[in-house]
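As a warm-up, study this chain.
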Amino acid sequence: MKTSHHLTVPPGLTSEDFLQLKSAITEFHTYDLSSAQCSSLLAQYIHAPLDVVWSVIRRFDKPQIYKHFIKSCTMEEGSTMVEGCTRDVIVISGLPAATSTERLDLLDDERHVMAFTIIGGEHRLRNYRAVTTLHEIKAEGSLPSKTIVLESYVVDVPEGNTEEDTRFFADTVVKLNLQKMASVTETIARGGGDAAAAESLRFRCSLFFQSKKSQVCELYLQLSAVEEVD
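Now compare it with the structure written out below.
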């Protein structure tokens, strides 16, 4: 069964921009689904140039720059960011997950596409695959351009859980990461590279994270409840 992301406007995207990006959605964000999987597509507008956003997203070795809940990320010494390389992610304490081993499937600097698959670790997101694409929106006159980030995924539905519960949990995590990505890259675009701006960004991200951490923990616990009982 094919996904139908190209038929429905995803959360965070206008109908007008959806029509312009429909071909890209069809090309990069379409998956073959089994009956035991679910998928979703989300969007985020960022008030920063595409090259700034891409410089952050393409750092497969440092996802913690724009992703919540990551304590550290390491790659094998001497490895380079090429398709097929892997990273080992350690999740922060307080979440019912510990580690995640992830493989870089695609890194296209010309078309601004990145894809990865979770291939191991201690977590519930089995066979999770994600694709992120960037799209520039030219502004009129002297106004700065904007960037649209599209991120989609496909993942197994854990035994005993519903497709809706699984999608709701994964969507929540992706949305939080997209929001942090917007905050980080917009600060960079404004020239917030000095120490004061960096500290302000860390503080705001910390407050945002603390307000959302309990929500994600609760969702994850609900997703894990059936397996815990078994």
